[in-house]
Amino acid sequence: MTNSKEESLHQSRWRKFLQYIEVPTDPGVPNTPWVNRDLIPMPKERRTYKIWSYFIYWCISGLCISGYAAGSTLLAYGLDARQAIVSLVIGGLIVGVLSVACGWMGERHHIGFTVACRFSWGMRGAYFPVVVRAFVTIFWDGLQAYWGGQAVAVTIGAIIPGFAHMKQTLAGGTLFTKDLIGVIIYYVFFIVTMRIPPERLQRPFIVSSVMFCGTLIGLLAWAVSNTHSGGPLFREQASPVHGGTGWAMLFGITAILGAWGGGTLGQSDWTRYANRPYAPTLSQFIAAPFCIIVCATIGIIVTSCAQEIVGSLIWEPFLLLATLQDYYNDSPRVRAAIFFAGLGCVCAQLGISIVLNSVSAGMDLSGVVPRYINIRRGAYLLAFLGLASNPWQYLSNASTFLTVISGFGIFFAPFSGILLADYFVVRRCVIKLEDCYIGDKRSIYWYRNGVHWRAPLAWVLGVFPTMPGLIMTTLDATAWNVWVRIFHIAFFVGLLISFVTFSVICWVSPPGNMGIGVSYHEESSFEVEGELETEEKEEPV
Questions:
Q1: pTM for this prediction
Q2: Which residue has the higher pLDDT, 474 or 373?
Q3: What pLDDT score was predicted for residue 9?
Q4: What's the CA gap between 156 and 161, in Å, rounded?
Q5: In angstroms, rounded to a whole number, what is the distance separating the alpha carbons of residues 381 and 358?
C-alpha cells in the first residue's frame, strides 16, 4: 500500500513538472503534440510585417558576411571577376523568384515550412524534412556564431590593441583565446535579442542593416580610393577549372542558389507575418537579388583591392579589419574606423543567425515537441548545440567540412521541389488548415499511418543523382566525372526532378484529399482541434 502511494506521489510530481515546463499558451490555443502558439496560422494581431519590413529582411539576408564572401566560390570555379558578377545577377534573380514561390503559402495561409510539410509529407512523415533542416542548421549556426565571435574580438581589439594581439590558443591551437571570449560575448547579445518575438524584430533588423551597410560602404571607399581601380582580380583572365566558361558559370549560379537555398525553402516562416497579401512579393522580386548582387560584388572589389594593398587575399571582412589594424600600426584613426566596421559585422551576424537559423530551426524543433519547445526555446537549444559542435575544430579542416555541409543542399532542393509541386500543381493552393493540426485518422493529411508515401519516393529520386558526386568530391576534391558535374548543379537537378516526379506520381495516383479546404486563411476559417471532424474516415492513400 505504501509503495502504491509513493508511486502515485511520484507520478503526480512528474505530471506537475511537465505542466510547469510547457510553453506559454494563448487563449483558445492549447499545447498539444501538434499545436502551440508558434505553429498555428499566424493570428491577425501578430501579422506586423509591412512592405518595408521585407526590404529590411532581405538587407539582413543578402547583406551579410556569407554574401560578402560568396565571390570566393565563384572565382574558385575559374571565372574572372566580371563573369562572377554576371553569375551573381542571374543567381540573385532566380533566388528572388524562388523566394516568392516558397513564401506564397506563408503569405496566403500564414503557416511556416514546419506545418506546410504536414500536408505534403503526412503528419508523421513531416518530421523527416523538419529534422534534416534543423540538423544542418546546427552546424551553420555554430559557424555563424564563430564568425560573430571573431567579429566581436576584432571590435574589442580596436579599443584594446593588446587584446587584438593576444596569441594564446586553446583546443590544440585551433581556437584563439580572444575568439572564445568574443563568442561568449556574442552569445550574450544573441540571447538578449532572441527575447524579442519575431513579429517585433523589425527595429533590431533596421539597426543591423544600417550598421553593416556602413561597414560595406566604408570598406569599398577605402579600397577604391587607395587603388583607383578594381584591383588585380579584375585584370585576371578566366581559367575554368573543369569544362568551359558556360559550365563554370552554371556551377557558380548553382552555388548562389545553394547558399540561399535554406533561406528560400523557409520563406514561409517569415511571410506568414505579412500584414496583407503581396506585402513580401515586391521585396522578394527586387530587394532579394539587389542585396545579394551588391553585397557579393562589393566583396569581390574590396578583396581584390585589398590584395593589392596588403598583399593577401582575405575574403572575410572581419579578418580584413584585423589585418588593416596591423597594417596601419594601430593608428588611432584606423582603430576608430575598425571599431565601427567590426560592430557592423557583429550586427550582421546577429541578424543572419536570427533570420536564417534561429527562428526557422526554432520552429522546426517546436514542431517536433510542441508542448515543451517554442521558437525561443528552440533557438536557445540550437545555439547551445551550435556551440557544442566546436566550429573551430571543423573549420581547421575547412575544405572537407564545407564540402560536406554545403552538400546537404542536395537534400534541401528536393524538399523545395516537393513542396512547390504539391502546393501549386497538386493542390492548387487549397489547404484544409485545421487538419494540419490533427494527429490521427480524422485528418485528411494522415494518409497511411501518418506518412504520405509519394513525398519520400519523389525525394529519393531527387537526391539519388547527386549523391555519388557528393561522396566522390568529399573523398577526393580533384575528382571530376559526370557524377561530380551533376553534384555541382545539384540544386537545379534536385529541385526539377523532385518537382516533376512528385507531380507525375500524384497525377498517376492522386491523393484522396485534393480540393478540400481554403485558398486563403481567414480568421473564422480555422479551429485548432477541427471540431467539425468527428467521425473517422478512410485514410487517403
A1: 0.89
A2: 373
A3: 64
A4: 8
A5: 9
